Amino acid sequence: MAGEDSREAQRGDNHEESSPLLKANDTKICSKAEAKAASIESPPAAEEYGWTADGLPVSHGSVIGEPIGRNQWNSGLFSCLGRNDEFCSSDLEVCLLGSVAPCVLYGTNAERLGSAPGTFSNHCLTYLGLYFVGNSLFGWNCLAPWFSYSSRSAIRRKFNLEGSFEAMNRSCGCCGSCIEDEMQREHMETTCDFVTHVLCHTCALCQEGREIRRKVLHPGFNAQSTVVVLPPREQTMGRK
Fold it and tell me: Which residue, 157, 153, 155, 159, is CA-closest to 192?
């Protein structure tokens, strides 16, 4: 009996070793496992893009990789009387304020940008104090531009306007080689904003005033729509 059992066990082992079905099943299991492992791939790493100082991505165009386009100012730096359009009266007001009361013009520009309570008085009074100190000690308004040039940078960033450095680089192409990234370009633009306010202070304030009045409503202006309901007209019955 023991000999017969050992023979049957050997036959079973030989049958398992020589069975093609078992080999096929093992091959199918291995192939499924390999296919599943191959299908699970690590997700591609997110592409990194640079960011400008105002939080906009460098490649923020219609297609990834397309450089962002800058908008042009509505009027030039030396366009004192503005443009002959629907804002011509506002441009004349800006020119008058810039010539007579630059502190008021700067305060209104800051008020439209900030739209917070007390913005006008805080900026206007601070500018007025620096104006009097600069004229008293040095004979000209040399201190107020150190305080007011930041408004030009804020307007340029808010409306994505072309800066003085970028315009100079576009016209002559002599300064682009020294700029490595957008952060360095933004520093150069801020420096150009400061130089513009120091050398052409009144013209810079007027240009900013014309630009912001075309794009931002005054905070005190009630822009809510008003619905006027008219009573129905008196109806009369016609006689035959």
Answer: 153
Distance separating alpha carbons of residues 59 and 65, to the nearest angstrom = 5
Whether 217 and 111 have beta carbons less than 8 Å apart is answered as: no
Tokens representing 105 are 């013009």
In whole angstroms, give the CA distance from residue 54 to residue 157: 6
For residue 120, give both structure tokens: 């006008």
Q: Identify whether the C-beta of residue 218 lies closer than 8 Å to the C-beta of residue 115.
A: no
- The residues that bridge with 51 in the sheet, in sequence order, are 57
Q: Tens-of-pLDDT digits for all 240 residues of the chain?
A: 544 555 555 555 554 444 444 444 555 455 555 555 544 444 444 444 444 444 444 444 444 545 567 899 999 999 988 888 888 889 999 999 999 999 999 999 999 988 677 889 999 999 999 999 999 999 999 999 999 999 999 999 999 999 988 888 888 776 666 677 788 889 999 999 999 999 999 999 999 999 999 998 877 665 555 566 667 776 666 565
d(CA 175, CA 4): 98
SS3 180: coil
Helix (H) or strand (E) holding 110, with range, is helix 102-114
Q: Are the C-beta atoms of residues 111 and 119 closer than 8 Å to each other?
A: yes
SS3 95: helix
Q: Which amino acid makes up residue 203?
A: C
Cα 210–chain centre separation = 21
Residue 64's alpha-carbon distances to 57, 94, 180, 237, in angstroms, are 10, 40, 20, 69
Q: What are phi and psi of 65, to 5 degrees?
A: 105, -15
Query: Is the pTM above the cut of 0.85?
Result: no
